[in-house]
Task: inverse folding
């Protein structure tokens, strides 16, 4: 079965690679155009485009799908597979061939742009992947296949990779269902739908009127992609990794513990330790090394 793949993100690239590992026949892919990236603002291709070119797969980069429908109709494919493409697909495209989507949540929970981050942020014990038929409304299509996965203590990147690999395996299963004509479509319970949107920079600020668990989950969910931070003496300190140390240290809420070995901050119900952080214009270092070089902050309050 000939597959047209649509994707643009790291999640997409992992799904696509897994599909290729399982010998699925991706004949072409559509991805976002090259964008300026990094300090030099050099034009960078998406990871999906890089993989496709490496594998000799035809690549199309469209700013918008609708003006390019004639080009897409000329592609010889049987089914389209979408994974984190980054554009809303018009009905005219969906009418060409069956289009299925790889979505990293247990729909109808967490429709939208940030399902993985929200599952971690909310302290969910379970997540998963849904393969659905793409509908005009965002992530509202009929469910074809759904599998669960336990959330352990993963940070975003690690959980994203696990879900993407699972998603690639599930696409293989669905393609077999299509070939064997056993595919079934189950409507979602729209009354249970929750919609999640993109985060902004302010969402990464750590607030110590939250519980230790909430702060740890916030860092796990947002530090790697969005960035988490605290403000001390008008300086913004990036925070990359933390742990709950409520059982080991006692310190007032919002205060930095006077301890030269551990970068500990009091929160609503206990304390968290900063394990990795970065000062302005500095390198990412351990919390202990940061405290050694900035012990003037001991006993101070973190700015709200």
Result:
């Amino acid at each position: 079965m000939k597959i047209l793949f649509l994707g643009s993100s790291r999640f997409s690239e992992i799904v696509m690679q897994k599909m290729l590992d399982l010998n699925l026949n991706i004949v072409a892919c559509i991805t976002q155009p090259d964008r300026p990236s990094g300090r030099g603002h050099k034009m960078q291709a998406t990871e999906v485009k890089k993989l496709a070119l490496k594998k000799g797969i035809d690549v199309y980069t469209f700013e918008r799908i609708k003006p390019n429908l004639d080009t897409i109709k000329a592609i010889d494919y049987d089914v389209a597979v979408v994974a984190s493409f980054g554009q809303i697909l018009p009905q005219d495209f969906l009418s060409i061939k069956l289009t299925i989507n790889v979505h990293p949540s247990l729909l109808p929970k967490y429709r939208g742009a940030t399902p993985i981050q929200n599952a971690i942020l909310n302290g969910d014990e379970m997540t998963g992947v849904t393969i659905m038929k793409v509908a005009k409304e965002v992530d509202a299509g009929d469910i074809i296949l759904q599998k669960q996965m336990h959330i352990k203590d993963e940070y975003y990147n690690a959980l994203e990779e696990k879900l993407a690999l699972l998603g690639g395996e599930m696409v293989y299963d669905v393609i077999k269902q299509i070939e064997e004509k056993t595919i079934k479509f189950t409507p979602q319970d729209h009354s249970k739908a929750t919609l999640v949107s993109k985060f902004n920079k302010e969402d990464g600020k750590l607030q110590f009127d939250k519980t230790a668990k909430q702060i740890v989950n916030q860092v796990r969910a947002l530090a790697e992609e969005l960035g988490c931070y605290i403000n001390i003496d008008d300086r913004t300190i990036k925070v990359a990794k933390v742990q709950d140390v409520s059982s080991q240290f006692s310190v007032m809420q919002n205060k930095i513990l006077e301890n030269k070995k551990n970068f500990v901050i009091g929160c609503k119900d206990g304390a968290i330790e900063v394990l990795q952080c970065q000062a302005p214009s500095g390198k990412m270092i351990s919390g202990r090394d940061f405290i050694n070089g900035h012990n003037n902050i001991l006993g101070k309050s973190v700015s709200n």
